[in-house]
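User: My collaborator sent over this chain with a note saying "see what the structure looks like." That's all I know about it. Can you take a look?
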Amino acid sequence: MKSEMSLRIENLLNSANLRRTGPRAAILSVLLQADKPLTQGQIAANLAAVIPNKVTIYRTLASFCRAGLVHKAFMHKRAWHFELADKCTESQCHPHFTCKSCGVVRCLVGLSVSIVEGLKKGFVIHRQQVRLEGLCPSCGGKKSM
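Assistant: Without extra context I'll predict from the sequence alone. Here is the result:
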């Protein structure tokens, strides 16, 4: 009998018409277990024993993005952060919060942010992403930096 994680991975790959391979299943497993978006380096660190080749991780993430399984949530310190696209719509990603003190990133699933309106003629929005910065609850009680 397959585990719940294995079934979820299989369903995700089937929905994207992607064949199940070891690297694909391993990367999806890491993303399913993550509670925040991860960089390619963070994913690689979790998979060093399973997928030592970072190019494989890069190519797999790219194929997941093309298939709509994963999206680039945001870029921070010149590194893209990836997450499953199941909590977002085609036009809007859920907001993310980054603590300016400790650096923790949190997904703000369920928080509603209005789609931007009133752009000048000629602009076409394909996707809206919102990243909030400030102090997390743990750092908010500390004195200012």
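A starting point for your reply to your collaborator: The chain has a mean pLDDT of 85.
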